[in-house]
Amino acid sequence: MTFYLSTVILTEFMMLAMLVHVIRYNGFKRREKIWYILTFSAIMFCSLAEYAVHCGYYDSRFKIPLTILTALQFSIAPLLGVLFTGALGMRHQFKIMFIYLGVNLLVEIIAAPFGYIFYFDDMGYSRGSGFFIYGIFYFVSLAYLVLSLILVGKKFKHRDFLTIIMNLVVLVSGIVPMTFFKVNITYLAIAISACICYIYYNDLVQMDIKAELLNKNEKINTMQTHMISGLASVIENRDADTGDHISRTSRYVKMIAELARKEGVYRDEITDHFIMLMETLAPMHDIGKIIIPDSILKKPAKLTKEEYDAMKRHAIFGGNVVKEILNGITDEEYLKFATDIATYHHEKWDGTGYPKGLKGEEIPLSARIMALADVYDALISVRCYKDKMTPDEAFKIIEDESGTHFDPKLVAVFLLNKEKFL
Fold first, then answer.
1. Of 45, 75, 202, 418, which sits most exposed with the smallest number of CB within 10 A?
2. Cβ atoms within 10 Å of 33's Cβ, excluding its own
């Protein structure tokens, strides 16, 4: 009896803990919470009711209350399979629950006065000649649960097959000792089975939610990439040279970042994510040029001081445009990365660049990489105001401006891998 009491106490505390978790957990919808609360509450009630009947302290004065309590237990216990099926997300379970409960309760009410399924005499509780009816109801409920587990398994692509096997083993492990050895751990086994299903199915649901979120994030990233390409096309439509420049510099910045990491330069900062952002957002570096008049942007001669000052405004304006377009539809890291590239890619290592006159590592690494790729491509390309240089001439200029215009560490990596940029 002490062992029996221990299993009941363990069952009650286990189900109480699950109830607290369900009530406090925000990962379930209201409908799911109701089903889990009904399931765990029913197990608690049935376990306590059975102990009250079999605890060994029977008094004939409590015959009627115990008869009512047992009838309720015999009506609810076969319902556990239906309850947990509802918790697993099967549809129309409320209707099935009420029908099954109604049938069970009706049979118990009719049979109880005649002691057909169970009865109480001077010795206490005894099974009636029709006890097999209760067994049939219980078996039907168990079979229904197993069938539901299989059907629900289709939703999760049968990732839960092992759970079904585990639950069957646990349930059988609880029923067999009671049937053959009169060791009552049935409700403890049911409680453990309920916990296994709850934890595992919740995990499967969360995995699917996570996969759905990743899919949505991927769609958002694709949308952002298309948006950036579209914005870059605006520049390309105004200036064909700039358009080709955008596509080439995207490849260059990726190469510079990958080579720098390979050579151990800024390895802590240049992650796979950094390289992805670098390549994706590089097309936005000249977005500010949309405000520059064609008379300046396409001028086939050297710009005057006033025109050059107007041209320099594209850096600040580009950063502002990026903020206005991407703010609210992307995360802070993405937004800052794009803004840094658009705003600071004309800063110089010695502090003589624009728009802020930043110096050395005050300049964001993304903008320093962008500056190198930007100038290299400009040097080897034909522009409306100049002819193209040879790559060797471009390499020589970049080498000469290492430590003044460009980050010397990046220049070293760049010159070490000349052949890759030819």
1. 418
2. 16
Length of the chain equals: 422
**Assigned token pair, 347:** 């800063």
> Which DSSP state fits 353?
-
In 3D space, the residue among 365, 376, 378, 356 whose CA is nearest the CA of residue 407 turns out to be: 365
Nearest 5°: the CA angle 207, 211, 215 is 170
Cα 172 from chain centroid (whole Å): 36
Q: How confident is the model at residue 102 (pLDDT cuts 50, 70, 90)?
A: very high
Lookup: tokens for 266: 């800024």
Distance CA 74, CA 50 (A): 9
Domains (range + CATH), the chain: 2-211 (1.20.1070.10), 239-421 (1.10.3210.10)
Distance CA 380, CA 393 (A): 8
Q: Which residue in the block uniquely carries the two structure tokens 């990026």? A: 322
Q: Which two tokens stand for residue 350?
A: 């010695």
Question: Shortest CA distance to 40 belongs to which of 74, 17, 9, 24?
Answer: 17
Residues with catalytic roles: 289
Task: Report how far residue 66's alpha carbon sits from residue 50's, in angstroms, rounded to the nearest whole number.
Answer: 10
The two three-digit tokens of residue 17, written as one number: 């803990």
User: Tens digit of pLDDT for each residue in 46-72?
Assistant: 888 888 887 766 677 788 888 898 899
Q: Which residue type occupies 113? A: P
CA distance 36 to 42: 10
DSSP3 helix / strand / coil % (the chain, rounded to 5): 75, 5, 20
CA distance 282 to 250: 5
The answer on pLDDT for 349 being more than 90 is yes
Cβ neighbours of 315 (radius 10 Å): 24
Widest CA span in the chain: 115
pLDDT (0 to 100) of residue 1: 60
Q: How many whole angstroms separate alpha carbon 165 and alpha carbon 144? A: 15
Instruction: Quickly state the pLDDT bin for 415 (edges 50, 70, 90).
Output: very high
